[in-house]
Specification:
mainly beta, DUF1080 domain-containing protein, 8-stranded antiparallel β-sheet, signal, 15 strands
């Protein structure tokens, strides 16, 4: 009886472990842009195992979006800014050309609200982090962003520190892709790695 009980517990643990691993997916393989779609003429490339976004000659907005949609999820990504470094991570978004509908978690130079939420072609800034939290950004070094989107609630963390929590009905009703952005204006370069999503 004791052996059967122990075996049952072991099998349950293995099942839960497998189920958990199936929900977690690496979105970037370190080799190419498989699983992503390019929008616009800005530059997206893989160099030395890193995803690199860089302004092109048009100096326009550009996006790299997943080919799948994600409703409720937790995303972690490492980024390093070079030059201007104005970028972002969109969620529950749809893109046509270089016009995007959705919400952006800001990735920007110091004092420009990294971790805040901006609604493109809509209401603009929905929430900005408290000013003192700007010190959590390590410009020119690797940073880790975590984004949790469940129902109508969005929470962001930068290097382990919670930046914002937002509840919004419009966000709650939406569904769409995850997308990385190059801001317009030129002179932008950002490196990305360890892009992992867990469906909730």
């Amino acid at each position: 009886m004791h052996i059967k009980l122990s075996l049952g517990i072991l099998l349950s643990i293995l099942f839960l472990s497998c189920a958990s691993s199936q929900k977690t997916t690496s979105l970037f393989n370190g080799k190419d842009l498989a699983g992503w779609e390019v929008y616009g003429t800005e530059k997206w490339a893989v160099k030395d195992g890193l995803l690199v976004c860089e302004s092109g000659p048009d100096k326009n907005y550009g996006y790299l979006a997943t080919d799948k949609v994600y409703k409720n999820f937790e995303l972690t990504v490492d980024f390093k800014q070079s030059a201007n470094g104005n970028s972002g991570v969109f969620f529950r978004s749809s893109i046509e050309g270089t016009k995007i509908a959705g919400w952006q978690v800001e990735v920007a130079p110091p004092k420009h609200d990294t971790g805040g939420i901006y609604e493109s072609y809509g209401r603009g800034w929905l929430i900005k982090p408290d000013t003192e939290k700007d010190k959590n950004l390590k410009f020119g070094e690797w940073n880790t962003m975590k984004i949790r989107v469940v129902g109508n609630t969005v929470t962001t963390w930068l290097n382990g520190i919670q930046m914002i929590e937002l509840r919004d009905e419009k966000i709650g009703e939406a569904n769409g892709k995850i997308a990385l952005q190059i801001h317009d204006g030129g002179g932008i370069k950002v490196f990305w790695k360890n892009i992992v999503v867990t469906k909730i």
